[in-house]
Write a structure and sequence with these properties.
Number of helices: 17
Shape: elongated
CATH architecture of one domain: Alpha-Beta Complex
Largest sheet: 7 strands, mixed
Radius of gyration: 36 Å
Distance between the termini: 47 Å
Oligomer: single chain
């Protein structure tokens, strides 16, 4: 069953991660079994500690949602071992005329070659000029001829070699056996059979004939095989007994992996002449084949977006996906969909408040562990209910979830916000843990937020922060870069602002001193910082 990824925004915070886990669990519990929680970045220390406390593994890490080879409805033909007969390969092609090539693999399943009907036809024509077998496994010969051994060579041969000679019933005999390196194909010709055995030819193929009664079941160097096929068919089939690897194309094969992106695959396919390409898994084992036809209408990945609806904050390659739903509590932004989708956007302080409400609506109580996890996410996103985004509904829902989980919200808040970042943690990592990019009018800017109970300790690294902020600003072409050190105890945010200082002072009616300011009561990036800049820039 095709997976549906539930993903939050880039640089995920606790609410984003837990919303994905909660929504995926809800969908799976109410009938669907293919929803997978995903994340678009590394977990913060806070989120990691909360997941560990309630016994949850992090969501799967997804870097890109562009369409990959794994998303195509590629062919899955029989993947044959390099030792099978050419006849077996031909039978597989005949069974499905849509297959243009058969992958040939080694004993570990790795690609050994590709075989087409043209390869078999070219080999078949070549045998007319050189009708000779070279070390063809005896088992292969018996298989294609549906034969059995009636006389065994005392030397117990495992392969058959020699020039293939067809003896017609009314033709001569002795002149056909030029040397022991002969594979004689004949009918009911007792004298010729005796002569061949006496001269020690490598192999005699009896076509719809019996062994002369006076002959034993052993011979010095001859293996005698009986087959129900007539002489003409036996001759043609015996050449198809060779192992497939001998005529399969093995050099210059263009193969693709399941993780390759379709845009890259198209470029290669357009510049090559092959009709079919092998598909390999992560361990280079063959899993199928694809052709140009499969690239025409690729199957899109399916996604549900939680805690965001802005393209710049979503997964790369989102435009190549099929969005099924959006669950969010932010302003409506710029994500577009090809079809109508389910959208739930509510003015609450946490996306987990919405997700928990959906559990109520569907008559499903979350487990104690999941309830505790969602309560922690609400506490985190509302900054212990002190954020201006917090609503009575957030508080009530957090209390209900805490009761289910058997946890104390005050203790939970202390646990969350006392998890300050280590002093030796790189400032770049601190800046990008909860970082969002915005585009308003002609302005592109980034805002990083660190929620803590010790903002002064972080400000001791002010020079390091400003240096890294300058690098990020220049690399991304931002007009402004802001760091919010949101202090729960001070109930406000200490700000570092680089670039656009005049805009900042106008928007917040304050002064920056050495790029620094304190905004009392400002706890929310989305409700108190971004809206003020939006008003300023129209």
């Amino acid at each position: 069953m095709e997976e549906i990824y539930v993903t939050g925004h880039r640089n995920p915070d606790t609410d984003s991660v837990v919303s994905a886990l909660g929504y995926a669990a809800l969908q799976n519990a109410t009938g669907e079994r293919n929803y997978v929680a995903a994340r678009l970045g590394h977990l913060s220390d806070e989120t990691q500690k909360i997941l560990e406390r309630f016994g949850f593994e992090p969501p799967v890490y997804v870097k890109d949602m562009r369409t990959q080879v794994r998303d195509l409805m590629f062919d899955v033909p029989p993947i044959l071992n390099k030792g099978v007969t050419v006849n077996r390969v031909w039978s597989a092609m005949e069974a499905d005329r849509h297959i243009s090539a058969i992958p040939i693999a080694d004993d570990e399943g790795h690609l050994a070659g590709m075989m087409t009907a043209g390869d078999i036809a070219a080999y078949d024509i070549a045998t007319m000029e050189e009708p000779e077998l070279r070390d063809v496994p005896l088992f292969n010969v018996l298989s294609v001829l549906e034969g059995q051994i009636v006389v065994e060579s005392r030397r117990m041969v495992n392969t058959i070699s020699g020039e293939v000679v067809l003896a017609l019933p009314l033709g001569g005999g002795e002149e056909l056996i030029k040397s022991p390196d002969t594979v004689l194909v004949c009918g009911d010709q007792p004298e010729l059979i005796r002569l061949a055995v006496e001269r020690g030819v490598r192999c005699v193929i009896l076509c719809r004939a019996r062994l002369p009664e006076d002959m034993g079941t052993e011979a010095d160097g001859t293996t005698v095989i009986s087959t129900p096929y007539d002489s003409l068919h036996a001759v043609r089939r015996i050449f198809q007994a060779i192992p497939a690897e001998r005529i399969a194309a093995s050099k210059g094969i263009q193969a693709f992996h399941l993780t390759d992106y379709i845009d890259d695959v198209k470029e290669v396919v357009l510049q090559s002449r092959y009709r079919s390409y092998p598909v390999l898994d992560g361990e280079d084992r063959v899993v199928g084949t694809l052709s140009r036809f499969h690239l025409i209408r690729p199957r899109r990945k399916k996604v549900v977006l939680v805690d965001h609806n802005e393209l710049a904050q979503s997964v790369p390659g989102l435009d190549e996906t099929e969005i099924l739903a959006i669950i969010d509590h932010h302003r409506l932004a710029d994500i577009q969909t090809q079809n109508p989708v389910y959208v739930r956007n509510e003015p609450v302080g946490s996306t987990c408040t919405i997700v928990a409400g959906m559990y109520q609506e569907r008559g499903l109580m979350p487990s104690g562990k999941l309830a505790g996890l969602m309560a922690a996410a609400i506490v985190s996103d509302t900054v212990m209910f002190k954020s201006p985004t917090c609503t009575p509904r957030d508080v009530k829902m957090a209390e209900r979830l805490a009761a289910i989980a058997g946890v104390d919200l005050a203790e939970l808040g202390q646990f969350i916000f006392s998890a300050s970042a280590p002093e030796d943690k790189p400032v770049r990592e601190l800046l990008l843990t909860d970082f969002k990019e915005f585009h308003i009018a002609s302005h592109a800017f980034g805002i990083s937020q660190i929620t803590c109970v010790d903002s002064d300790r972080h400000l001791k690294r002010k020079a390091e922060f400003l240096e890294e902020m300058a690098r990020i600003k220049e690399k991304n072409g931002y007009s402004m870069m802001i760091l919010m050190l949101t202090d729960v105890l001070l109930e406000g945010s200490k700000i570092l602002c680089l670039g656009g200082e005049d805009y900042f002072t106008q928007a917040f009616n304050t002064e920056l001193h050495d790029c620094e300011a304190f905004l009392p009561g400002v706890m929310s990036r989305k409700k108190q910082v971004v809206p003020m800049l939006s008003v300023l820039w129209g």
